[in-house]
């Protein structure tokens, strides 16, 4: 909330260029305000310190402990052949465990004088193992003396703040920098309206900032965090409420289906009845389409809950009302599949204007980047004349050449794969803003939906349609129990013998060596730990065809194949001409082959929770039960195995998405990266602070309705500007 010159002051003026440079490069802190909002990660109490007993390996840690003993050894080495090498070993303890510190060479002199038995100090360094014992080599340290003025001032509280730090800048140096700028907190302008703050008994902002950095009691920390959480939730919700408010002012053409039109004819053809959930969600959508402002709705549902059917009925309603509908899919494979299944579901209704087509039918066209020139010209012509009521395509739909006769509805499949700019470009194709329906098959907990998609109204489909079978999931620990893996391939053979088909999913394609980008990528810690690259489609397919699945018809599918080849492979698999499809995650969304009953996911620990849930939804789509086998070499106690056990234990996508979030943190909720990237939320945890987010949304909506430009709340305006730097502002505008 960098509102005032004092908080806008660059750190290099206040702290000196060297420290300021490290803060900017490693922690992203540039101004006094940034530093004041760099909150401690936790607090150490004197005498009750980080347990040395549970130090993490290879991590940068800060511990507070007492020196138990210190010994100086001399030794011979290549540099000091006459036994003149010096090594200082210091043992420290905190009551829970002991830890060895080592200093070498000229580095021994200062600690030898200072680290006397009985001394208390903070030590910071990277934990390593030597001779089976944990140690810190050449740690930085800060003595905790009770006498010197500065130390007493600096550690006045009995609670010592431990800041998120880096190897270049220890926690206590950040603490000293904070101490320097702390007087500026008095100038922080409060973003919360006074009535709201007083009504909820929250601390004023300057007091909250003082207490989070220099608490005297645990109650100080709690009060400060409660206040700062409200800031984050409220400012974010005001940003979203302003967007909802602005969208509601836009004009749109109401689209109401005709009672005896295309939608009625389609419903009459359906061989099954819609689930109650589908009917309820359809009504919400039809009510929105009938208004004079653009619909902005998020439709989320379990894998296979029938979202495509709901979206298709919405598109038919718009065509009925004289408009056109466009559906955006993230990949060509998916666009082709959607096109095929929509045409199948509509039958002669999809052949408007053609011989044998129904009279109230329309044309359904496909538009992708790899289409031939003639087919593409015809599709573009059908769109501009209005001959085609429905178009399904990839982002080729967004190109300048594509003109619509009257675009009334945009359906975006799998929101998380589409940039905001792309949605925006498609919206710009309507004469007036079209209605927007965003579908996601990754169920999102309610609070996340309120923070990430807070500008969209949400509809949820949580029942599975009749005729869908349950999916059993099991973890296959290939390293601990190799016979389990052998049994997995037997199960695949059994399913094929019963006339069914199988998927085998791998994390990699296998021809990446030619890709210069992948060669320069740094390996992740997991890769380092395993020293084995993730399994690849091309290798696995080859091994299976020659080994455990010999004699079965095995084919491969991955993203680098030519689109026509991909389509041909999918068609053969759908037609039952292939027994086993070895694929990357291209099959993650939308692939529908009811006869596929078993899926084996290799190196399952390399996939995220929601991705595994998505993949698993590709089996059990027919009347036979589905089976999903999660193969991993990770040891039983590892977090990766716990994640897989969670996926195996529940089919509830909403439950899984909560687990996923708790493990990953939220990522930058506003930015496009919704993964574990640096989060703009510092104290607010989207899952835990559900109530605060819901209350903040209510308050924000009231305030924006009364004063959309926030003219009476300058502090809130400034906080909003700080939160929405230009890039995020654009992101929100385009949502």
Alpha plus pi helix count: 28
**Judging from the principal axes of the Cα atoms, what is the shape?**
globular
β content, as a range? 15-25%
**Structural class designation:** alpha/beta
- Care to count the β-strands? 21
- Largest beta sheet: what is the strand line-up? 11-12-10-13-14-9-15
Mean pLDDT value:
80
Poorly predicted runs are 151-157, 514-521, 523-530, 666-679, 726-735
- State the share of residues found in helices, binned by percent: 25-40%
The radius of gyration over CA amounts to 30 Å
* Ends apart, CA distance between termini: 24 Å
Largest sheet: 7 strands, parallel
Give the SSE map.
Layout: H1 5-8, H2 11-15, H3 17-27, H4 32-36, E1 42-45, E2 60-75, E3 85-93, E4 98-104, H5 109-114, E5 120-130, E6 133-137, E7 140-143, H6 149-154, E8 159-162, H7 171-181, H8 194-199, H9 205-213, H10 218-249, H11 262-269, H12 276-289, E9 296-301, H13 307-320, E10 324-328, H14 332-346, E11 363-367, H15 373-385, E12 388-393, E13 407-413, H16 420-427, E14 435-440, H17 446-452, E15 457-461, E16 471-477, H18 482-497, E17 501-505, H19 516-520, H20 525-530, H21 537-546, E18 554-557, H22 563-574, E19 580-583, E20 596-601, H23 609-616, E21 626-632, H24 639-649, H25 653-664, H26 690-706, H27 714-723, H28 726-734
Parallel strand pairs: 4-6, 9-14, 9-15, 10-12, 10-13, 11-12, 13-14, 16-21, 17-19, 17-20, 18-19, 20-21
Antiparallel strand pairs: 1-8, 2-3, 2-5, 3-4, 5-6, 5-7
């Amino acid at each position: 909330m960098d509102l005032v010159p004092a908080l806008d002051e660059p750190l290099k003026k206040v702290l000196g260029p060297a420290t300021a440079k490290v803060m900017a490069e490693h922690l992203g802190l540039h101004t006094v305000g940034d530093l004041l909002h760099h909150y401690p990660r936790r607090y150490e109490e004197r005498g009750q310190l980080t347990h040395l007993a549970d130090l993490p390996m290879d991590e940068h840690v800060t511990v507070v402990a007492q020196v138990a003993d210190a010994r100086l050894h001399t030794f011979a080495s290549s540099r000091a052949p006459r036994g003149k090498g010096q090594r200082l070993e210091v043992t420290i303890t905190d009551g829970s465990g002991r830890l060895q510190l080592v200093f070498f060479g000229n580095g021994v002199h200062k600690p030898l004088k200072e680290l006397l038995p009985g001394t208390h100090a903070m030590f910071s360094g990277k934990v390593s193992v030597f001779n089976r014992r944990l140690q810190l080599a050449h740690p930085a340290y800060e003595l905790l003396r009770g006498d010197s003025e500065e130390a007493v001032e600096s550690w006045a509280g009995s609670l010592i703040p431990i800041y998120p730090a880096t190897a270049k800048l220890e926690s206590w140096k950040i603490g000293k920098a904070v101490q320097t700028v702390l007087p500026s907190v008095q100038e922080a302008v409060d973003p919360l309206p006074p009535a709201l703050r007083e009504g909820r008994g929250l601390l004023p902002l300057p007091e909250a900032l003082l207490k989070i950095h220099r608490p005297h009691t645990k109650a100080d920390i709690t009060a400060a965090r409660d206040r700062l959480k409200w800031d984050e939730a409220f400012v974010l919700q005001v940003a979203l409420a302003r967007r909802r408010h602005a969208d509601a002012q836009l004009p749109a053409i109401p689209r109401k289906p005709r009672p005896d039109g295309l939608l009625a004819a389609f419903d009459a053809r359906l061989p099954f009845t819609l689930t109650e959930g589908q009917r309820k969600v359809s009504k919400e959508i039809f009510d929105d389409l009938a208004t004079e402002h653009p619909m902005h709705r998020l439709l989320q549902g379990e894998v296979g809950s029938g979202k495509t059917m709901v979206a298709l009925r919405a598109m038919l309603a718009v065509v009925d009302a004289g408009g056109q509908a466009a559906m955006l899919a993230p990949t060509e494979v998916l666009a082709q599949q959607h096109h095929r299944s929509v045409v199948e579901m509509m039958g002669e209704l999809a052949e408007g204007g053609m011989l044998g087509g129904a009279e109230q039918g329309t044309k359904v066209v496909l538009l992708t980047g790899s289409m031939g020139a003639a087919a593409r010209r015809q599709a573009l012509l059908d769109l501009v004349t209005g001959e085609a009521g429905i178009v399904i395509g990839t982002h080729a739909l967004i190109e300048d050449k594509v003109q619509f006769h009257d675009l009334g509805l945009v359906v975006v499949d799998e929101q998380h794969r589409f940039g905001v700019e792309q949605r925006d470009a498609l919206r710009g194709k309507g004469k007036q803003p079209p209605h927007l329906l965003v579908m996601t098959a990754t169920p999102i907990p309610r609070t996340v939906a309120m923070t990430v998609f807070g500008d969209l109204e949400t509809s949820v489909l949580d029942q599975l349609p009749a005729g869908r079978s349950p999916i059993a999931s099991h973890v296959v620990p290939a390293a601990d129990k190799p016979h389990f893996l052998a049994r997995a391939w037997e199960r695949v053979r059994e399913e094929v013998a019963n006339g069914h088909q199988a998927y085998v999913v791998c994390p990699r394609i296998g021809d990446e060596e030619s890709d210069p980008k992948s060669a320069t990528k740094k390996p992740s810690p997991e890769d380092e730990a395993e020293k084995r690259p993730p399994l690849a489609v091309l290798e696995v397919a080859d091994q299976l065809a020659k080994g455990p699945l010999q004699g079965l018809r095995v084919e491969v599918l991955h993203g680098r194949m030519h689109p026509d080849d991909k389509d041909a492979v999918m068609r053969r698999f759908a037609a039952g001409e292939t027994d086993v499809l070895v694929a990357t995650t291209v099959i993650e969304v939308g692939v529908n082959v009811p006869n596929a009953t078993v899926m084996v996911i290799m190196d399952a620990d390399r996939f995220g929770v929601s991705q595994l849930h998505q993949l698993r939804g590709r089996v059990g789509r027919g009347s036979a039960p589905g089976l999903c086998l999660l193969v991993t070499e990770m040891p039983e106690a590892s977090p990766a195995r716990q994640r897989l056990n969670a996926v195996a234990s529940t089919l509830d996508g909403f439950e899984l998405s909560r687990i996923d979030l708790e493990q990953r943190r939220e990522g930058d909720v506003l930015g496009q990266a919704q993964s574990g990237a640096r989060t703009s939320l510092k104290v607010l945890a989207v899952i835990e602070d559900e109530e605060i987010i819901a209350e903040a949304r209510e308050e924000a909506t009231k305030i924006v309705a009364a004063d959309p430009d926030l003219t009476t709340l300058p502090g809130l305006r400034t906080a909003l500007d700080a939160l929405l730097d230009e890039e995020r502002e654009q992101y929100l505008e385009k949502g």
